[in-house]
Specification:
By secondary structure, the chain is an alpha+beta fold. The protein has two helices and five strands, in the order E-H-E-H-E-E-E. It has a single domain, classed as Ubiquitin-like (UB roll) (Roll), CATH 3.10.20.30. It starts with a strand and ends in a 6-residue tail after the last strand.
């Protein structure tokens, strides 16, 4: 188990009611963590339409996460 900080933007922030939270998780990748928080907070956007960054650098969903990482979750951008 590791402690990571999840930061949420736009609709994800609205769904969670918070900008960020510290999580104790067994997730090994950014995708695993997304699945965990999406289930907990009822995110409806598919992971592959969203973006993730780890410690302020864009990352892939298969990127590993480590103790103390800050994982940022961005929902799909609405266009118009």
């Amino acid at each position: 188990m590791i402690n990571v900080t999840a930061k949420y933007f736009a609709v994800f922030r609205e769904k969670t009611g918070k900008e960020s939270e510290v999580l104790l998780t067994s997730a090994a990748t950014a995708g695993d963590l997304f699945t965990e928080v999406a289930t907990r907070h009822l995110f409806s956007d598919p992971m592959l339409r969203c973006k993730v960054a780890i410690n302020d650098e864009l990352a892939g969903w298969d990127s590993g996460i480590s103790e103390g990482d800050i994982v940022l979750f961005f929902p799909p951008v609405a266009g118009g």
